[in-house]
Amino acid sequence: MKRLFLVVSLLAFGFIAQANAADPNAADPNPANHGDHGTVLYRIYCTQCHGVHGKGNGINAAQMSVQPHDHTDTKSMSTRTDAGLFKVVQQGGGSIDKSILMPVWGGNFTDADIHALVGHVRELCCKKK
């Protein structure tokens, strides 16, 4: 039952993301605003698994066989390139030999959206604690 909830949640957010990606106003074309845009996208699409503060403790995490990555772990995140983060968002966890529970978002997000998300993840890992 818990797995069904997780799958339904991920599918529902995928459909919402797809609807938003089709809206030309959904992505902020101004790179100066990507930080805010990335924060909004992260809150809508990533917090269910990664948590509000990016610690990998979102509401779905308890039911997952592989725990979501802690984006605040500076040591771990410093080993990941922006290109690698872009790839995992665009092509899913399986693309970098990580959990297949990380969805493929490339069909839902524009490249600008993904760059904005990567920027937000970098902010999470580099905040002074």
For the secondary structure, the number of strands is 0
The figure for the number of domains is 1
How much of the polypeptide forms β-strand, as a percent range? under 5%
> Which ranges are low-confidence, i.e. pLDDT below 50, for 5 or more consecutive residues?
15-28
Give the overall shape.
globular
> What name does the CATH topology carry?
Cytochrome Bc1 Complex, Chain D, domain 2
**Oligomeric assembly:** single chain
From the alpha-carbon coordinates, what is the Rg to the nearest angstrom? 14 Å
Report helical residue fraction: 40-55%
Q: Which CATH architecture?
A: Orthogonal Bundle
Q: Gap between N and C termini, in Å?
A: 37 Å
Give the biggest beta sheet. none
Order of helices and strands: HHHHHH
**What structural category do the secondary elements indicate?**
mainly alpha
CATH superfamily: Cytochrome c-like domain
Count of DSSP-assigned helices: 6
Determine the mean pLDDT: 81
